[in-house]
Amino acid sequence: MPACLFNYAEFAADYQGATPEEIAVGLDADTNLLRLPQMFHTASGASFSPDLRNFGEEGTVVAHGFEGATYTDANEVVWLAARVDSKLAGDRLLVDAWCDRLENLARQSGFARTQIWLIANEGFNDEAAELLRRRQAFGTSQQQFEILTARLSDEGRAATHSEEGNEFELILPMGADNELLAATTVEQVARRLDFTPAAINQIKTAIVEACINASEHSLSPERKIYQRFRVEDDKLVITISSRGVVPVNINGNLLHERN
Fold first, then answer.
1. Which superfamily does 163-248 belong to?
2. Closest C-alpha to 124, from 6, 5, 8
């Protein structure tokens, strides 16, 4: 994706007042690109930090992924995204508070490598944009977010050559190293598609990591992991999910809500 979609100051400088058609032409010609990681697990920020419930269940997102399609510890990255509340352009104090808040979440959760991404309806003023740059965080407006969403959707549709595909479902209880059963299953499916041995090992590693994350973070009362393997023309689409709960602290009592 064009890197300017994650940098409000750069986007505003190039496209302030431009029509949607002019923006589309400019982005198509942009050679400064950002390669997005491959995400394998996403959850509400409130699942990791109950304090974030104050900002809405969908106000923050924690997304685990790998850069460069290489599933190694060195390439693992966690994106911490938040939609911040600001009627005008976000200011320096707002950016500072949110970066501190998300960095604290990362420390408490033991995330080694993170990328903060803040989304404000009207973008960010000059001081806030400079602070985002210094803190190596992304900052976008709602307009940029909508453009990015549309372009990602277009990429997804272009990559899908067939609407029909073979689909397999697997439900496993959490624990007892059952994630290894999931890895064995996906290996058999991937072999049918003639994936290389190296690619199969990467897929198996991602499956194991996703199952472990679901077991450790979902607080699922039923202790089950739902897995779906969808075979399409030239790819294997894998979905890992669990029916978890979010801890809620009310007047000193720890309660749980289904998530």
1. Histidine kinase-like ATPase, C-terminal domain (3.30.565.10)
2. 8
